[in-house]
Predict the structure.
Amino acid sequence: MFLLSLIRFPVDVPISNIQQWVRSLFITILTFSVMVSCTDVTDTFNSRELISSTGERIYINTLSWGITDDTQHTIVTKDKTRLMERKDTLGTIKGLSPFMYRFVNDSLTIYSRESNKAKLDEGFESIHVSYRYLKNSDYMDITNKALRGIERLRYLP
């Protein structure tokens, strides 16, 4: 109502038209405010380092973006800076938490759903990589264990 006191409308304009105009103005201002506030949303880069008994270092890097970080790419690589930018997503695994993993005695086991088979393009010198493709129910069990840190299972950030 404060806005209405600042704006002078002709006397013969129906109140319903004025209310509709104010509602449209409010929605426009709100939309503009949301758009302006979302321009500063930055990408989220996470990296986990795994070190073998011989000192070889590999990294599980993830890059997430979007207003709620709902777009994610992941890569297992020797390069700790790989995937720091969106333009570097070639050869990555797309999807939110596309796999769980376990790293024990220079062996990296990657657990993923049968429907989304994670496969690494890069080879490593002293770290052996194996894959376990699971049905959704088994994958959910592994996810639950990884979230609780049971059996050295790890969840991607």
